[in-house]
Amino acid sequence: MPDPQFIMVGDGLRIATYSWGDESDPVAVVVHGFASSTKDNWVATGWVRDLLRSGFRVIGIDQRGHGASDKPHNSSDYDLRQMARDVETVLDTYLVDDAVYVGYSLGARVGWEVLQDIAGRIPRAVLGGVPDGIPLARLDIGQVQALIEHGTPVEDRVTQNYIQLTERVPGNDLRALLAIANGMRESKTIDPDPTHAPEQPVLFATGTLDAIIEGSRALAEACPQGRFVEIPDRHHFNAPGSRVFRQEGIAFLQGDA
Prior knowledge:
The protein contains 9 helices and 8 strands. Helix 4 (106-117) links the parallel strand 5 (99-104) and strand 6. It has an 8-stranded mixed β-sheet with strand order 1-2-4-3-5-6-7-8, with helices on both faces. By secondary structure, the chain is of the alpha/beta class.
């Protein structure tokens, strides 16, 4: 991992970014999922390595509340619109005119907004494990709150998986991640609108064992140039490491699929 380069965004938070490759190469911006980081989602899984081998320069972003970025505990700091603007600010600061976008889970949901906000600058994208409806809707916020305040064990299976993911990634702050989940619920733009979908080519990819697969497929069908790929034998938490996902995604970004 290179040292993070910090960028100040509109509301005064510091966003950690990372850059690999030659500045003259086409840019791929990679945005991770909930409770993950650039290192966990994209470096450890081989995505950065393979994107570089395929001729891309890579810019990674630790989303607010994650990685080396600032981690406020107020839910109001995690409005979905602001998280999309963070990506746009990073591209502006790096003086990147256009870039392909790769997002997973929460990063894919943020990408749905970015693809439309600055459509002329994002010619092609891969959105993996993108949820329809409220992001993190399956997380039991009450049980997480009880764990933080009283140490009460989490009983909900899906929430247990999120907690395990949180504990697996060094530096995660459970209070910040709870604020993110609350922020998603309080946001006024939580549902991807299939009647207002990205128009550029987008590859949607979701694990065959992921409960959100049909919702992701429906979003792909709503996009004029959407394509859907199933990631075989993967669920929501291990799909980023799939070789099939990586190969299909990079081929799509190169215009080969």
